[in-house]
Specification:
alpha/beta; 23% strand; Immunoglobulin-like; TIM Barrel; single chain; disordered N terminus; nine-stranded mixed beta sheet
């Protein structure tokens, strides 16, 4: 019996030691492993190593039967600033002797970009169309070919050549006329902030005589729409005349602008009854008529001049969706019994104080957000600012190479069949993904643009078309910060199936479905 008890005691002691040792081993191993992990983590943090990226799957549903606006082809306009008949100080520093940048009558690279972009119209400031001065300021002014003195004849040679070349490419122009007033007719006011050279200020001051100024513009309308038969549809009166800085209606009041607009509108319509007048192109939607007045500038203008106007216009710089501003303007129109009046956004881009915006991928994705907003709110016209602006342009002025914004614009305007298509609703819960979608004008297909800001290697998408079936040919295009637009292999799919797609986490993708 004692032997049995000794044996049991031995076994219990032995088992206890084994268990204790095993637990010690586990604890030691875990501590050792953790210390290694901590060491690696600390080392990576010190060296600022890139985080390990993971793949994500998102779900997008589309309802092709949902009612939506028809997408105006005039959404895909662009501001053209530098035409370069004389000296372009920015471009020619890097490309001496290239005096005709952006003029398709001479510049074949401009022809290539313009044709491939799908741009439908260029918004052009009158003084730039005629190249009144080169862009180095008053010291380099090239004279005034429009109306250098009272009663003088306009020299149309350069401007006619340029418009003819654009028309040959199927591109229209929208002419913004209000930043030009000849020096002999100008009130020659100074800006409230004391900035701007004399030449700039004189051209942007209100005229001494509104009727004389209107007759100058009427002469242009007669030449372009009767003599040359260019049929310039949209003539824009005003450019940011509101606000306290008033850089473009220098020291001019709200009441002065109302009187000016009425005189000009009456004169131009008497010359060309089919003219389409847009205005007043305010700097946003929130300025007051006078400081402390409590009256909104744009709404008050519509109350005074709405019957003289065909299209209501306002500029807006934003990083994305501006639906609330559009709804605000629609309410102004409705309050003045103008609810059927279309809306034009002559300048849109990200905020102007951003640095190097069009080389930043986030800002390029914001273009997808804006076009989604414009399409879903039924905007008639919009013009990206700009084709060639120093920082905000689609093209780099120094190298004349396409920036990311150009490729994004091209997906909508040239490749995607969005023109005259119909907006279809879509839903995606991921806030880092922006989806713009439409059915094609011929009802034979659909297009989907997806802008992704996800910091992942690959985005996997499950795309579902509600109440749709049939075989479709899928053509895909992708743009990433590392390359130009890349066309992927065409594949056949059935819309009744769950469609699985993939694209890089930071990318803009276009998917075109065409019925077979």
């Amino acid at each position: 019996m004692k032997k049995i008890q000794k044996r049991q005691t031995f076994y219990l002691s032995f088992f206890s030691k084994v268990v204790t040792g095993f637990i010690f081993f586990l604890v030691y191993s875990f501590a050792l492993e953790q210390s290694v992990k901590d060491e690696i983590f600390t080392k990576e943090t010190v060296e600022d190593a890139a985080p390990i990226k993971t793949n994500k799957t998102i779900k997008i549903s589309l309802d092709a039967d949902s009612p939506g606006y028809t997408i105006s082809p005039y959404l895909f306009g662009c501001n053209l600033y530098y035409i370069g008949f004389t000296n372009n100080e920015y471009f020619n520093k890097a490309n001496p002797g290239h005096d005709y940048v952006n003029n398709p009558a001479h510049d074949q690279l401009a022809v290539k970009y313009m044709k491939e972009s799908g741009v439908t119209f260029f918004r052009i400031w009158l003084q730039n169309l005629f190249d009144i001065y080169s862009f180095g300021g008053s010291d380099n002014k090239a004279g005034d070919p429009i109306c250098p003195s009272e009663g003088a004849q306009c020299n149309f040679t350069r401007a006619d050549e340029f418009i003819e070349a654009l028309n040959g490419l199927g591109i229209e122009i929208s002419l913004m006329v209000s930043l030009y007033c000849p020096e002999w007719l100008s009130t020659k006011r100074d800006r409230p902030d004391g900035k701007g050279d004399k030449f700039w200020n004189n051209h942007r001051s209100p005229p001494k005589d509104n009727q004389k100024w209107a007759q100058i513009i009427a002469g242009l309308v007669k030449h372009y729409n009767y003599e040359k038969k260019f049929d310039i549809k949209n003539w824009e009166i005003g450019n940011e005349p509101d606000g306290e800085r008033t850089e473009y209606w220098i020291n001019g009041s709200f009441d002065e602008f109302v009187e000016y607009f009425k005189v000009v509108a009456k004169t131009l319509r008497s010359v060309y009854p089919a003219i389409q007048l847009s205005g007043p192109t305010t700097a946003g939607t929130d300025h007051m008529t006078y400081k402390g007045s409590g009256k909104n500038w744009l709404e008050s203008f519509l109350n005074e001049c709405g019957t003289y106007l065909d299209i209501c216009s306002f500029n807006k710089y934003s990083t994305g969706d501006i639906s609330t501003k559009i709804i605000q303007v629609k309410s102004y129109l409705q309050n003045n019994h103008l609810e059927k009046m279309p809306i034009y956004i002559p300048e849109h881009n990200i905020l102007t104080n951003s640095k190097e915006p069009q080389t930043n991928f986030f800002n390029t994705v914001s273009i997808v957000k804006r076009y989604k907003c414009y399409m879903e709110n039924g905007i008639l016209r919009a013009a990206f600012f700009g084709w060639d602006a120093k920082i905000h342009g689609m093209l780099d002025l120094q190298t004349y190479e396409a920036r990311p914004a150009y490729h994004c614009f091209r997906m909508f305007a040239a490749l995607g069949n969005f023109k005259n298509g119909r907006v279809i609703s879509n839903y995606c819960a991921n806030t880092n993904i922006t989806v713009a979608s439409c059915s094609h004008q011929d009802n034979m297909g659909f297009s989907v643009v997806i802008g992704s800001e996800e910091d992942t290697d690959t985005m996997k998408v499950e795309l579902f078309f509600k109440n749709q079936n049939g075989n479709y040919e899928l053509t895909s295009y992708q743009y990433t910060p590392q390359n130009n637009i890349k066309k992927l292999k065409v594949q056949m799919i059935n819309l009744n199936d769950l469609i699985r797609l993939s694209f890089p986490g930071k990318s803009i993708s276009l998917f075109i479905f065409r019925k077979k």
